[in-house]
Design brief:
340 residues; alpha/beta; Arginase, Chain A; 9-stranded parallel β-sheet; 11 helices; 37% helix
């Protein structure tokens, strides 16, 4: 007859104890949280280094929709790194040569914030409230969108929750998103997020650094940048100076006189031959290596207090490469910051 302790354990528990390998979860198995992190309530992340929030909203996009599916796709793609860490324990990052231990990273996935597809204003308040709740616990918000309008309420939530007076912005993007008003879309859409941040109580354009800008902007845009103090680094600047030096200067300028820095990465900063799954692709963008270097560089700066990844639109990429790269970008920053 079995002893009492054995009988009280389930057959499943006994199997997991006795069979080798049951502690390793395959990348395509289990629940799709970011990096297979434990799920948790947004109110209970005080003991974590970072907390993930998804924002499945693309109601403020002016071109192709689909970024509402970004959070799910990026979470699913991130399982690969969690699998490697669980299978091999400590890892060697062959790009950076660093020894990585993800057990040093305390991460919680709080799920998706409530969104209201026909109510942009209510959705914005939801984003602000949830990001603020994370920030007020001293935990880094990691936000996965969603179209790039979502950065504005997320930025506001971070500032309010953390109690910061001034926060700098490092924006890696193909577009400046500085439109004050559109005849079609009004003052609040994904082309206005940086304008709204610059007009907010927490920032001005002198604390905004933009990296990888290309395509077309309004007439006289370089004069506008000079007049407002916007720290503008075009794709050509990156080609001529290199991504790491540009990002170093960008984050230093954003952090100068600020309490913290918020990083936003629009996946359309990357060349669409590499990351086609986005709403407004522009040719001649960053390579995958340049994008990863940018996030690795930002991950070394203690001033960075929040990060988001926006505009991953999986319907336009049947290969899933865009979501995979997006996940890797967030992993790169978190790894550098917490896991080396």
């Amino acid at each position: 007859m079995r002893d009492r302790e054995t009988s009280e354990r389930s057959r499943a528990a006994r199997f997991r104890e006795e069979a080798a390998g049951t502690g390793v979860e395959l990348p395509y198995a289990g629940f799709d949280t970011f990096l297979k992190a434990d799920p948790g309530r947004v109110e209970d992340v005080a003991d974590a280094d970072a907390a993930v929030l998804g924002v499945p909203f693309d109601g403020a996009a002016s071109n192709r929709p689909g970024a509402r599916y970004g959070p799910g796709a990026v979470r699913e793609a991130s399982a690969w790194w969690a699998y490697l860490a669980g299978y091999k324990g400590g890892l060697t990052n062959m790009r950076t040569r660093a020894q990585v231990d993800y057990s040093k990273l305390s991460l919680v996935d709080t799920g998706d914030v409530p969104v209201f597809p026909m109510d942009r204003e209510m959705t914005a308040e939801s984003i602000t409230s949830h990001v603020a709740t994370v920030a007020e616990q001293g935990t880094m918000p990691v936000v996965i969108g969603g179209d790039h309008y979502c950065t504005f309420p997320s930025f506001r939530g971070f500032c309010e929750g953390a109690g910061h007076d001034t926060v700098g912005l490092v924006q890696i993007d193909a577009h400046t998103d500085t439109v004050a008003e559109s005849a079609l879309f009004g003052e609040h859409f994904h082309g206005s997020s940086t304008h709204l941040i610059g007009e907010s109580a927490f920032a001005d354009l002198e604390h905004v650094s933009q990296v990888g800008i290309r395509g077309y902007e309004s007439p006289g845009f370089f004069e506008f940048a000079a007049e407002t103090g916007l720290n503008l680094f075009t794709a050509t600047d990156v080609e001529e100076r290199g991504i790491a030096p540009v990002v170093e200067v960008a984050v230093e300028r954003a952090a100068d006189g600020a309490d913290a820095v918020y990083v936003t990465f629009d996946i359309d900063a990357v060349d669409p031959s590499v990351a086609p799954g986005t709403g407004t692709p522009e040719p001649a963008g960053l390579s995958a290596a340049e994008a990863l270097t940018a996030m690795e560089t930002l991950g070394t700066h203690d001033a960075v207090g929040a990060v988001d990844l926006m505009e991953v639109a999986p319907p336009y990429d049947p290969t899933d490469n865009t979501a995979r790269l997006g996940a890797n970008l967030l992993v790169a920053l978190l790894e550098r910051r917490f896991a080396e």
